[in-house]
Amino acid sequence: MRTAVGLMAEQGYEGTSTRDIASAAGVSVAALYYHFPAKLDLLREFLHEAHDIVLARLGRDLDAAGDDPRARLDAAVATLIWSNLHDEWAQQAARVAWREHGRLDEPDRKAIVGKIEQMVDLVEGVVRDGMASGAFATTEPRDVARAVLTLCISVVDPFPAVDRSMARVVEQHQRFAAALADTAPRPPGPVRAVRRSR
After folding, report:
1. DSSP character for 27?
2. By CB count within 10 A, which of 1, 51, 87, 195 is most buried?
3. What is the CATH number of the domain that holds 64?
């Protein structure tokens, strides 16, 4: 599975054949088919496992973070980014996990989306607690939670070219997340059209 995910991260799902996976893993195609009758079966098992691991890690780290909303939001960001970046395998796995789940059949795709929504639920709970205590000013906790998750996922592809340590990336994204949580919506006003240059 690690071999397959590594190849899919570099070549994409479509660009990775079953024969490529078997050859790189040092097994016969027949042996691979014995465990995974189709390449999609391998992807399905990996995606469920990857999302379960991140979801469990996020819940555990939030429980350990105490009651302070900012500390809990910082913990959520640190956990999500660490899960995506902590080593080369994590970076490869994250690229496949976040990019390829749309290839699954509808029931499995919905199950993975459900796990992503559970991650959003956890972050939203942190934001709501911060709103209740006065620590955060937003009135849009679900949207903030989705934006925080998107921020933490978006670091995967550019990270190898970023001239910063993972700790620095985590600290920066913790500030971004706190700013999102502490931003009250603007009062309604006229909608201005965006002008595009020709």
Report:
1. S
2. 51
3. 1.10.357.10
